């Protein structure tokens, strides 16, 4: 067989699948730590899921959180409120997080801040009632579930069921790592985070399939060699693509993370972690699991 | 000669695609979401009362009252639509004081005339018109006129409560509580306003009538115009920087084909903008992220194709044969890999709303356009240069001799 000759030679030299127990261990440790933090601290759910109000103002000079707290004290909503600095506008920003306020109360806060500080400008106000929060949570889970089922069906149809089953394990791996790291960092989780998770799902599958596609091809072209070698050759041959694609994607994500503004940072952080995990898992988890699956069956 | 002709046709096809995309973009422009141009997104939910349950006619009633209020506030290009059985979504682009507007729009605004023990004597249905005005002392007031039957009713009431107090309430807020000094027919005044603006706000509510049932504001997202501007500037800068870095990497790794990839990427960007404009899709902040992500996918398609061509070259094929075989084998990979992502984007678009849906839609469009670009533009561009020395050189596609 002449095709992929030089690649196959490389495939003989670099043994990724033989060391699969090491890769499994690395992943399990990271997921384990993440789950531990998740159980102890939970996720830092933002107003999209828990309900609440967020208001952001900018000023032309430095305004302290104490000054803002004093204003909120006067209108009686200071107790349940968290006040922080933000750098969204490039000037001096303040973010107020409060319980779910009604429209009247929001206007009161808006006016109170503006009358106390002349330069105050309202950048954004978000209010999410408890019903919406619950719906968003349910819809996010539902979207994840439906997407997974659709993916299993498509891959079973185009490949084999075991490829589909392992794709799902791989994407759960990526999602768990992303959620775990967010639990460890204690970063706030909102709807964009869910969008990020779903993008990770899509990307993870995309990445895994490119390798599975090569394994499928090798199963036809190299039918005399054992499965582990077919799979290892596929992983090694697609390595340049896997690395190049993840580097170019991660470059763009990093560019947006650092220069795209604060409101998009959490989203980009989630994408970065997920895509990193996705590249790792498509090389070091997905194909090794296929080999493990094969071994269990032939025993 | 035949080859040259073919090449010319391919060049024309690419230029036609670019021209059409540019035409769509300049013809329609890109719709910006509320998070980018500033504005308010409000979700209202109708609350059933003891007398009234929520049905279609109640919802139509709420919708028309809210439409009239929004118009009276003088807001441009509002979007008011019903969602589900009991919800209404109001979108107000470029509104000056969004939080005030929301407060006005969401009020039940039931006007009642009550006696001192709180008993309702007359409601706002008796009021024909209400305007902000000044009384003889120059104080801001609301001057209201009554319907014919309302006029009779009010005359009876004022006769009966002569010398006593009658309170006028908007919902549970007392506007004024005057003592009746004469029998009043036809018209009256509500005093106690600090400014004509404050009087006008309530006048709108009284004039356009009460909502048939109360509504609850269950979600609001407002963005001031400054923040929208900042977001657009920042994300465009970040996106361009990302594109530039990717282009540099591609040229560094793939040499001349890398330059082609960078050009293809620019063409991809143009087709994408044209498609977004043609479909009148709305671009939101997460949508920009979706676009940038799809750039990653577009690059990926090119990487897959280049790597395949490289494999074929390594196996000893001529450049032309390697390009043919490389594309053929890359097709299935790209389709299988992208179909799953498109499915995820569709499902996400179905289950979510607002800005996240904007993300899913742009991601979906981006991936479809990236597949189109890979199959038509990349193929033609590579073919055009297949005869040139630049691609024939040994270092092309980064193949190392060996």
TrEMBL record, chain B:
High-level lineage: Bacteria, Bacillati, Bacillota, Clostridia, Halanaerobiales
Domain Protein export membrane protein SecD/SecF C-terminal: from-to ranges: 215-382
Residue ranges constituting the Protein translocase subunit SecDF P1 domain according to the UniProt record: 62-116
Name this protein carries in UniProt: Protein translocase subunit SecD
GO cellular component: plasma membrane
Cytoplasm recorded as keyword: no
UniProt KW Transport keyword: yes
Alphabetized GO MF terms: protein-transporting ATPase activity
Membrane-spanning ranges: 9-26, 235-252, 259-281, 287-309, 330-352, 358-382
């Amino acid at each position: 067989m002449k095709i992929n000759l030089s690649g196959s030679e490389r495939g003989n030299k670099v043994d990724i699948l033989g060391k699969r127990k090491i890769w499994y261990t690395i992943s399990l440790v990271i997921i384990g730590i993440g789950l531990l933090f998740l159980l102890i601290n939970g996720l830092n759910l933002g107003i999209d899921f828990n309900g609440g109000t967020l208001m952001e103002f900018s000023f032309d000079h430095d305004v302290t959180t104490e000054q803002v707290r004093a204003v909120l004290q006067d209108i009686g909503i200071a107790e349940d409120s968290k006040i922080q600095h933000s750098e969204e506008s490039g000037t001096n920003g303040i973010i107020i997080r409060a319980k779910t306020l009604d429209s009247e109360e929001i206007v009161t806060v808006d006016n109170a801040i503006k009358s106390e500080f002349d330069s105050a400008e309202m950048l954004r106000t978000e209010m999410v009632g408890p019903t919406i929060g619950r719906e968003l949570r349910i819809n996010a889970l539902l979207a994840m579930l439906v997407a997974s089922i659709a993916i299993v069906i498509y891959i079973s149809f185009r490949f084999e069921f075991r490829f589909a089953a392992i794709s799902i394990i791989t994407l759960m791996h990526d999602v768990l790592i992303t959620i775990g790291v967010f639990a460890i960092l204690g970063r706030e989780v909102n709807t964009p985070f869910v969008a990020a998770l779903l993008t990770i799902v899509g990307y993870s599958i995309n990445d895994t399939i490119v390798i599975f596609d090569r394994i499928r091809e090798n199963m036809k072209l190299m039918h005399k060699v054992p499965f582990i070698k077919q799979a290892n050759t596929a992983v090694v041959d697609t390595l340049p693509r896997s690395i190049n694609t993840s580097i170019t994607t991660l470059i763009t994500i990093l560019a947006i993370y650092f220069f795209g503004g604060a409101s998009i940072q959490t989203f980009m952080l989630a994408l970065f972690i997920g895509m990193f995990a996705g590249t790792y898992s498509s090389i070091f988890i997905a194909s090794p699991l296929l080999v493990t699956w094969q071994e269990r069956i032939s025993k | 000669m035949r080859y040259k002709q073919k090449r010319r046709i391919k060049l024309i096809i690419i230029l036609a695609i670019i021209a059409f995309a540019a035409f769509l973009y300049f013809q329609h422009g890109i719709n910006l979401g509320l998070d980018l141009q500033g504005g308010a997104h409000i979700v209202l939910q109708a609350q059933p009362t003891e007398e009234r349950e929520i049905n279609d006619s109640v919802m139509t009633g709420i919708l028309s009252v809210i439409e009239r209020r929004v118009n009276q506030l003088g807001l441009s290009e509002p979007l008011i639509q019903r969602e589900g059985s009991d919800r209404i979504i109001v979108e107000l682009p470029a509104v000056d004081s969004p939080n005030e507007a929301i407060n006005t729009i969401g009020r039940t605004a039931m006007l009642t005339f009550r006696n001192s023990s709180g008993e309702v004597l007359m409601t706002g249905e008796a009021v024909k018109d209400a305007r902000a005005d000044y009384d003889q002392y120059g104080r801001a007031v609301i001057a209201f006129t009554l319907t014919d039957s309302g006029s009779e009713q009010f005359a009876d009431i004022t006769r009966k409560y002569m010398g006593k107090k009658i309170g006028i309430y908007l919902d549970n807020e007392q506007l004024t509580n005057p003592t009746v000094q004469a029998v009043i027919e036809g018209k009256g005044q509500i005093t106690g306003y600090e400014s004509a603006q404050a009087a006008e706000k309530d006048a709108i509510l009284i004039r356009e009538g009460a909502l048939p049932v109360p509504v609850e504001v269950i979600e609001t997202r407002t963005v001031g115009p400054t923040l929208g501007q900042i977001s657009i500037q920042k994300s465009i800068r970040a996106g361009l920087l990302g594109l530039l870095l990717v282009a540099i990497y591609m040229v560094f790794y793939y040499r001349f084909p890398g330059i082609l990839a960078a050009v293809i990427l620019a063409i991809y960007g143009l087709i994408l903008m044209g498609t977004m404009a043609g479909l009148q899709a709305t671009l939101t902040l997460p949508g920009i992220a979706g676009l940038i992500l799809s750039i990653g996918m577009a690059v990926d398609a090119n990487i897959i194709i280049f790597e395949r061509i490289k494999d074929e070259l390594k196996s000893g094929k001529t450049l032309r044969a390697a390009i043919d075989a490389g594309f053929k084998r890359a097709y299935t990979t790209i389709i299988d890999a992208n179909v799953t992502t498109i499915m995820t984007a569709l499902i996400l678009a179905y289950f979510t709303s607002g800005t996240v849906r904007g993300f899913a839609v742009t991601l979906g469009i981006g991936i479809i356009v990236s597949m189109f670009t890979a199959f038509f533009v990349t193929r033609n561009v590579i073919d055009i240069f297949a005869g040139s020395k630049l691609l024939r050189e040994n270092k092309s596609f980064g193949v190392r001799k060996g």
